[in-house]
């Protein structure tokens, strides 16, 4: 494109455009996107124009922000031989049976950081103490509740975790902050670097969970994990009589993933075990000839798709509460013609019209599916967690007009994690914890809002056993991003074609925050750690996360759907069974799932439209203007 146009591009983005060797059309799209960015305009546009912007932006990221790590390791196969989700996530991608299986490389959304700063520059404990540690609890108002916080941990435990080394590192707090650090020093295992055998990204890291949206947080990530959770009768999973997860002789829950669990996560695992078992009952009734294995396989497909759907058209639209995102997420699932059209005519005219789900074949945009380092980094959302769980009394109270159950007690979060958390959960019960979490606002993703109790946390290993070394989580998270060569904030933005900041005032209007940023990073905005930048960034109205994090979501949320054979080519009655597919197609929200297992609970205790907003929030008002014709929210 001529020099006339390039003069208008932010100087630091010119290099990125040149490095990416963009095609003519893409350069044009980039100009449009960049022009809108310069005016800070996209989220203020009417829905239809906002959607066009997001479509252009996503297209650019699909072309320039998918970096494969490690290359192809597997082989082609006949997909008909594997009409089910395997225990370790292999045999999903038709071209390579290993793609997305346990132990494969994390991909990247950009090259590893070129930052000149060292691993300890500045010391992670200084960053954590001065910029992350919670001062006064900031919550999310009525928008997002503690179920929503637990939900995203439930998803993280489905998607990602890094393989560690066996040798440890130690971080010590320097004198300037040591008095404010509950741990003067702490030890942890390094992330294990593995040679990729490729010349572009030479070292990579392995994902110990299956990155597909396959419900591995309840089904396990390999054969032994799967065997542990199954009853091998009628396809069902183990669940205890009180409806919670079974607990083994060591006091550890029996579930697909038990690392760093707390009661909120175990509750969601239990709820979806119940969902799986209910699907098994339904299938057995309709298809009495199916054996245990067949029932298990179909029920897993159905339950995993329900989870993916709840996340896409319920959780995400509460996280990013604007009409444009409401439209965008529904388009991802149903297409622009909407649910009624798709229910009537099936998947026709491609993804724009009918959504990703049910596409003829999976689409990976030329890069084998994986989740990425940058994806993990933007999901560092521990600030969502409160200091205490506020327990509500649902037994003695009768339903009040405002549907708010009386407060029972506040339980410190430390009492709700690990084995102690399991014991406490068994006293509380599934229904009570769901209602309690439903009525409690989650923490806001903001500076100075990292849970205090996580500064001396007892982590659990993959077997659910307490680790001997306590960790300072916010410091550890700063170290992790640097260790895995994830770009720092400004480089991250540039690589996502977002306008970088040139001074602290570009990041935030808060003078106190700017003062603290200067104290830690001086005037060097390039040094700013990603997690701090994501927490400090001015937010778009209605967004509970930063715009920078959102751009990774925009790319990866679609990818999780469109790259998966079981949500595209095999999302059909033959693979799921007719009744199984109907189950997915008639479940629209977490509320539907809760209602199925606790028929009275939401009627009695929930006023809000979504189970992810605080339950006493007023329901969404009917808006008579058709969604696509609405002005900006
Ligand atoms: C009580 C609840 C939770 C506890 C006890 C917990 C604890 C932990 C621990 C100990 C780690 C490993 C740190 C390391 O060695 O690098 C971790 C990683 C992580 N957690 Fe949490 N967490 C909780 C909830 C959440 C929530 C609500 C989110 C929200 C998205 C979340 C997202 C993550 C992510 C993205 C990682 C990085 C995974 C990786 O390195 O691959 N966690 N968490």
Automatic annotation (TrEMBL):
Cofactor(s) needed, names only, are:
heme b
Q: Which UniProt keywords apply?
A: Dioxygenase, Fatty acid biosynthesis, Fatty acid metabolism, Heme, Iron, Lipid biosynthesis, Lipid metabolism, Metal-binding, Oxidoreductase, Oxylipin biosynthesis, Peroxidase
- Give the GO biological process terms: fatty acid biosynthetic process; oxylipin biosynthetic process; response to oxidative stress
Q: Which PROSITE patterns does this chain map to?
A: PEROXIDASE_3 (PS50292)
Among Pfam families, the record links this protein to: An_peroxidase
Please list the residues that bind heme b.
382
- Lineage: superkingdom: Eukaryota
Q: Which PANTHER family match?
A: ALPHA-DIOXYGENASE 2 (PTHR11903:SF25), PROSTAGLANDIN G/H SYNTHASE (PTHR11903)
This protein's name: Alpha-dioxygenase 2
């Amino acid at each position: 494109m001529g020099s006339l146009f390039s003069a208008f591009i932010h100087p630091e983005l010119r290099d990125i455009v040149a490095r990416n060797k963009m095609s003519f059309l893409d350069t044009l799209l980039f100009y449009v996107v960049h022009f809108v960015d310069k005016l800070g305009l996209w989220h203020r546009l009417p829905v239809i124009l906002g959607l066009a912007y997001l479509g252009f932006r996503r297209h650019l990221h699909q072309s320039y922000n998918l970096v494969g790590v490690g290359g192809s390791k597997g082989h082609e196969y006949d997909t008909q031989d594997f009409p089910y989700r395997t225990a370790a996530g292999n045999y999903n991608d038709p071209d390579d049976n290993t793609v997305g299986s346990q132990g494969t490389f994390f991909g990247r959304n950009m090259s590893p950081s070129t930052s000149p700063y060292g691993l300890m520059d500045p010391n992670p404990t200084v960053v954590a103490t001065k910029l992350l540690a919670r001062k006064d609890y900031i919550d999310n108002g009525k928008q997002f509740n503690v179920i929503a916080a637990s939900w995203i941990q439930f998803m993280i435990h489905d998607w990602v975790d890094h393989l560690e080394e066996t040798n440890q590192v130690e971080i010590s707090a320097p004198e300037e902050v040591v008095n404010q650090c509950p741990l003067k020093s702490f030890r942890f295992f390094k992330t294990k670097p593995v040679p990729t055998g490729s010349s572009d990204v030479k070292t990579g890291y392995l994902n110990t969970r299956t990155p597909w949206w396959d419900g591995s947080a309840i089904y396990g990530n390999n054969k032994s994990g799967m065997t542990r959770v199954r009853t091998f009768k009628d396809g069902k999973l183990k669940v205890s009589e009180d409806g919670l997860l079974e607990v083994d002789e060591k006091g550890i829950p029996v579930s697909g993933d038990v690392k760093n669990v707390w009661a909120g996560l175990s509750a969601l695992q239990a709820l979806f075990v119940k969902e799986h078992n209910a699907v098994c009952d339904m299938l057995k009734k309709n298809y009495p000839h199916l054996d245990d294995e067949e029932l298990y396989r179909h029920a897993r497909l159905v339950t995993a798709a329900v989870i993916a759907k709840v996340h896409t058209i319920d959780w995400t639209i509460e996280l990013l509460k604007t009409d444009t995102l409401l439209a965008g997420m529904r388009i991802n699932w149903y297409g622009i013609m909407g649910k009624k059209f798709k229910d009537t005519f099936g998947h026709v005219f491609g993804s724009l019209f009918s959504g990703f789900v049910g596409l003829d074949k999976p689409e990976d945009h030329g890069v084998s599916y994986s989740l990425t380092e940058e994806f993990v980094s933007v999901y560092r959302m521990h600030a969502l967690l409160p200091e205490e769980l506020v327990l509500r009394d649902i037994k003695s109270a009768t339903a009040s007009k405002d549907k708010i159950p009386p407060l029972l007690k506040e339980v410190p979060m430390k009492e709700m994690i690990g084995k102690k958390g399991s014991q406490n959960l068994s006293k509380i019960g599934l229904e009570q914890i769901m209602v309690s979490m439903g009525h409690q606002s989650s923490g806001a993703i903001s500076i100075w809002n990292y849970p205090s109790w996580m500064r001396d946390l007892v982590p659990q290993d993959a077997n659910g056993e307490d680790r001997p070394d306590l960790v300072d989580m916010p410091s550890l998270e700063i170290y992790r991003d640097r260790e895995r060569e994830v770009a720092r904030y400004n480089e991250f933005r540039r690589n996502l074609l977002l306008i970088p900041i040139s001074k602290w005032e570009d990041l935030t209007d808060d003078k106190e925050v700017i003062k603290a940023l200067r104290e830690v990073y001086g005037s060097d905005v390039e040094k700013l750690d990603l997690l701090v930048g994501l927490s400090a960034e001015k937010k778009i109205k209605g967004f509970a996360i930063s715009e920078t994090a959102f751009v990774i979501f925009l790319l990866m949320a679609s990818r999780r759907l469109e790259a998966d054979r079981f949500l595209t080519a095999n999302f059909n009655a033959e693979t799921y069974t007719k009744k199984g597919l109907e189950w997915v197609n008639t479940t629209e929200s977490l509320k539907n799932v809760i209602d199925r297992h606790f028929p009275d609970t939401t009627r009695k205790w929930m006023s809000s439209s979504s189970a992810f907003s605080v339950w006493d929030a007023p329901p969404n008002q009917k808006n008579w203007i058709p969604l696509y014709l609405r002005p900006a929210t």
